[in-house]
Amino acid sequence: MPKNSEKSIKFNFDVSAYRLLGRELITDRITALFELVKNSYDANAENVTVEFQNINPLSTDSKIIIKDDGIGMQFSDIKNKWMVIGTSSKRRERLSPSPHNRKVSGKKGVGRFAVDKLGEKLVLKTKKKNDSQLLCLETDWSHYSGLENSQFKLNFEDEKPFFTDVENSYWYEDDSKDNQGTTLEISLVSEIWTEEDVNRAYKELSKLVSPNSNLKKTYPFNITIKAPYSGFENKIVKTQLIDFATKKVELSFNAVNKKQEILQYNKAENDLSLISVPERPCGLLKLTLYYFNQEDKRKYKSHFKSDIDGIKIYRDGIITTPFAEYVSHQEKQKDILGIDKRRYSGFFERFGSRDLLGFVEITDENNPNIIESTNRQGFVDNEAWEELRKFIIEQIVQLETYYKNIKKSERESTKSSLGGASKDLKSIKKEIASIKKEASPQVKQKLKNIEANLGKIQGSVTKSIKDYANLEKESKQKENLFFSLVSLQTYAAMFSHMTKHTIGHILTSAEYFSKNYPNQKLESRFIKISKNIYNEMLKLRKGVDFMLKYAKSDTEFEEINVKNLVLNLFEDIYFDRFIDENIKTEIVINDDLILNYNRKSIEDIFDNLISNSIKALKGRNDKIIKCSSITSKNDLTILFSDNGIGIKEEDKFRIFDIFFTKTSEDGGAGMGLYMVKTRVEAMQGNIEVVENELKPSGATFKITLPFKK
Amino acid sequence: MNVTFVIIDDNEEIREHSLLFTLEDKYKNVNFYSNPNEGLQFIKDNLDVNLIVLLDIEFSEKDKKNGHILLEEIYNTSALIPVILWSGINETTEEFSDFINNHAFGFLSKTSTLDESMLIVDKAYNHLKNSLDNTIEDWIIQNEVDKDKTIYLNADGDSFSLNDILKEIRLQTPIGKEFSSKLNALTIDLLLRKKEKL
User: Fold this and answer.
1) Which residues in chain B are contacts of A500 at CB distance < 8 A?
2) ipTM score
C-alpha cells in the first residue's frame, strides 16, 4: 500500500522510570553505596566520606552524606552528563582526567540512580576548583512517586507528564575558591542503618580496591565512614589484609607473546607448577588465589573477624559489582562462578568458596568482552565470561588435585611408619630377651613386666595396621561405587530415552490390534504391526541386557578379548546411535589380544570415549571413529580417534579434569574423560591427547597399558 | 470436512506407526515425511486444503532443521494450520515457550496411547471445522449459487467473490487477513447494535 502521509513519533519514559533504574535495578543498599563511591573514584577523588546521620531511629533529620574531594562538576556537566540517562561520557573517556588517569569504573551511565535505593530526596552540591560558587541541585524522588500514584487515577493518557517532564530545581551558594568536589546529601532515608549494617558497609567497602592494586602509592583513594556508633566516629576503611593462608598462588601473563600462566599439577614430583599457555578467549588476566585448610581458616577468622568469602573479580583495580551484594548467610551468597555448584561437590575433596580467597584482575584493555550486567548482579553471558569461569574452576581443580595427593602421600607415610613401629617393637623385644638371659632375678622381673607391656603395644599397633588397611579398602570401595553411580546416570538417560520410544511404539501397536482385530481389510497392517512389535521388543531386550551388566559385581577379573569387546560396543550397543548420527567405524585390533581385567572397567573406558567422540562429531561430515592397537614387548598402546571438532590447544591440559564442563546442569558431561583417566590409571596405565590421527581435524587419545611382569 | 494429515518425523519407523494407521482409518489422507524439507514443501504447496500437522521435535544430526524451527516456519507460512508436537522428550518449559510463541496446537508424547492421541487430534479437527474458512466453505457447498457473488471490495477497488475470499483466507494473504478481522469487527458491531437481523 502507498504511504499516505508520513509522520514520526518518539519514545518516552513513564515517570516510573526512576524506580526501574533505581530501587528496582539496584537490589541492595551496599551495591547502591558502591555505585556512588565509585563515582567519586572516577572523579579523581582522593578522599571520600560516607556519613550516616541520625539513621537509627529514622526521623526527618536522617541523612546519608557522601562527600568527596574530586574534580566536581559545572553546570554543563550537570546538564549534559548527570541529568542524562545512560550518558556515554564514561564510555568515551575511559581514563579520568590527569594527573590521576584512573581507569573509570562506571560505564553504563545509570549509577547515580542508586541514590534512590538509599533515600527519596537528594541535594547534590558540587564545585570545580577556582569557581566561587557551589552548584546545588535538588532531586525529589518522592515527587516522582507522587506523580506516579496520582497518574493511576487519571483517565486520559495525554494528560500525564513523562519522566523527562518533571522539573528539578537548582541554585548557587557561595563557597571558598579552594574547595572542590561533590557532596550527595540524601534525606528521607528509606531504611534504618543499624550498627551491624554500617559494619557490613565497612567490610564490603574494604574490598572495593584490590589488595594487589598499586594505585594507593601514587594517588590514594581513602574512604572514611562516619556513623553514630562507637568505633565509627571517623573510621578509615582499610583494604582487606590476608594472612595465614595455607597456600598462595599467583598467576600472571606475558602481554608481548600473549601467554597466560596457569597452574599445573605435576604428578611425578607431586608439586604445583606454573606453565604458560596461549591466551584464552577470556583474555589475559592475573589471579591471586589463597587456599585455607581448616586450621588456617580458624586462625584467619579469629584474627580478622571476617569470613573467607570466595573469589572476586576486579577490573582495573576496582571490584566489579556482583560480589558487592551482601547476604547475611554465606550459604545464600550468589555463586556466579559456579564454584560451589559443581556437580557432586561434596565428594573428592572439593574446595568451596569458603576455603578460598581469590582476586581475579581483569582490565578493560585485555578483557573487553567480559561485561558486567546492568543490574550489577552478574556478567553478560557470553563466550568470554564462560571461559573466565572455566579458567578459574580449572585452577581450583589443580589445587584440589595437589592437596588430594598430599593427603594420599601422608596416608602412605602413616602406613609405612606404622609398619616401621611394628618392626622396631619386634627388635626391642628381641634385645630384651637377650638381656633377660644374663640379668639378675630382680631385673628379670622388671623386664618381664616391660615385655608384657610391649606385647600389648605391639597388639594395638598390629590392630591399627589392620584397621588402616580396612579403612583404605572401604574408601576405595566407596569411590568405586560412586563412579558406578555416576556412569550409571549417563546410561540411565540414554536407556530411558530408548525405552520410551520403544514402549510407545509397542503400546500403540498392541492398542491398534485390540481395537481392530479381526478385520479382513486391515490384514496387511496387522502383519506390519506385529513385525514392528517384534523388532521393538528385540531392541528393548538389548537395552535391558546392557543395564543388567551394570548390576553385576564390580571386582571380578576375567580374560577379555579386547577386539570382541570393542566390536560389541560398536556393532551392538551403539549400532543404532551410529546409524542415526551417520558415523562410520574402523577397528584395527589383533584378534587374539587378551587382557585379564575387570570387564566393566574396560567397557567404561571405551564407552566414555565413544560418547565423547559422538559429541565431538556433532554437525560434521563423513564422521569416523577409529580404534587401533599396537603391542610391544612391554606394553599395549591403544589409539582411539575421531575426526570431530578436535580438542582446543588450551583444553589439552584440562580435558581430563573432573567436572571440567561448561554447565553444571549438563547431565553426566564433565565426568566421562575423568573416569577414563582414573580407570586407565587404576590399571597402572596412562592416557594422553596426542596429535590427531585423522585429518584435517579430530582428536586422538593414546592409552598405554604396561604388561604385568 | 476433508482433512489431510502431514506427519514429519525423521525416524522412518514411524511410517508404520499405529497412530498413522488409525488416522488413515478415520480421516483417510495421511502423508508421512521423514525429510523435514519435503514435508514443509508439501504444506506450502497445499495451503488451499485443510491440514493438520504432527511434528517431531528432536531430529537427528543430518537434518539441519529441528522441530522448533519447522514449527516456526509452518506458523509463518500459515497461522491456520494446527500443529501438534509429537515427541519422545517430556513437555518442558522449552516446549511451552513454543506453544506460546509459535502457537503449537498441542503436545503428544510418543508414549501416549492411541485413545489419548486421538483426543488431541479430534480437537484439532474440530478447531479446523469451526474456523472461518471452513464456515465459508460449508456455505458454498450448501449454497452453490452464492459462490461467485461479489461480496467484498477493498480500498484499491478490487472485488472479491465468496470463493475468492475463501482462497485469500486459506493462503493467508493480506486481503484474507484483513477480511477476517473486518468481518469479526462487523459481527461485534452488529451484535452491539442489536442488529443480528439485518
Assistant:
1) 88, 110-111
2) 0.76
A679 pLDDT band (50/70/90 cuts)? confident
Find which of A508, A521, A581 to mutate to test the B interface (most B CBs within 10 Å of its CB).
Answer: A508
Domain A17-237 identical in fold to domain A556-706: yes
Residue B101 inside a domain? The answer is yes
Q: Give the integer Cα–Cα distance in Å for B26 and A512.
A: 13
The span from the CA of A212 to the CA of A82, in Å, is: 32
Identify the domain boundary among B129, B146, B180. B129
Interface test with A, best of B61, B63, B93 (most A CBs within 10 A): B61
* Residue-wise pLDDT tens digits, A487-545: 666 667 667 777 888 899 999 999 999 999 999 999 999 999 999 899 889 888 877 87
Which among B16, B62, B114 has CB closest to A511? B114
Class of the CATH domain delimited by A556-706: alpha beta
Residue whose grid cell is 560396543: A569
A509 touches chain B (CB under 8 A): yes
Contact B18 A503 (CB under 8 A): no
The DSSP line for A324-374 is G---SSGGGS--TT-STTSTTTTSTT---TTSEEEEEEE-TTT-TT--B-T
Put simply, the answer to whether B62 touches A508 (Cβ < 8 Å) is no
Same domain, B183 and B85: no
Average pLDDT, chain A: 83
**Interchain CB contact of B12 with A (< 8 Å):** no
Same domain, B54 and B14: yes
Which of A212-216, A439-443, B98-102 has maximum average pLDDT?
Answer: A439-443
A136-164 confidence digits (pLDDT tens)? 999 888 888 787 777 766 665 566 777 78
Contacts of B19 in chain A (CB under 8 A): 508
Same domain? B32 vs B113: yes
- Cα A294 to Cα A344, A354, A356, A410, A677: the distances in Å are 21, 10, 11, 17, 30
Residues B123 and B28 in one domain: yes
Whether residue B198 lies inside any domain: the answer is: no
CB contact under 8 A, A512 and B16: no
Interface of A with B in 610-629 (CB under 8 A): 618-619
**Lookup: cell for A346:** 561434596
pLDDT at B56: 87
**pLDDT > 60? residue A1:** no
Residue numbers of the domain that contains B89: 4-129
Write out pLDDT tens, residues B31-59: 999 988 899 999 999 988 899 999 988 77
Q: What is the CATH classification number for the domain harbouring B85?
A: 3.40.50.2300
pTM: 0.56
Domain boundaries, chain A: 17-237, 247-407, 439-539, 556-706
Domain edge (last residue) among B129, B161, B178: B129
For residue A346, the cross-strand partners are none
Same domain, B16 and B108: yes
The partner residue sitting opposite A500, judged by closest CB among B13, B111, B113, is B111
Q: Which residues of B touch A580 (CB under 8 A)?
A: 60-61
Domains in chain B: how many in total? 2
List the single residue in A501, A508, A522 with the smallest CB-CB distance to B19: A508
Whether B16 and chain A come into contact, CB under 8 Å, resolves to yes
B110 to chain A nearest CA, in Å?
Answer: 5
- Judge whether B151 lies within some domain: yes
Q: Chain A partners of B115 at a C-beta cutoff of 8 Å? A: 511
From CA A198, how far away is CA A224, in angstroms rounded?
Answer: 12
A511–B contact, CB cutoff 8 A: yes
Nearest beta carbon to residue A508 from set B13, B88, B114 = B114
Q: Are residues B119 and B161 in the same domain?
A: no
The secondary structure element, H or E, covering residue B33 is strand B29-33
Q: CATH topology for A17-237?
A: Heat Shock Protein 90 (3.30.565)
Q: Write out pLDDT tens, residues B77-92.
A: 888 899 998 887 655 5
- Distance in angstroms (rounded) separating the CA atoms of residues A220 and A239: 12
Candidates A339, A397, A365; CA nearest to A283 is A365
As a whole number of angstroms, the distance between CA A161 and CA A147 comes to: 8
Same domain? B125 vs B164: no
B109 touches chain A (CB under 8 A): yes
Peptide bond into A228 cis (omega under 30): no
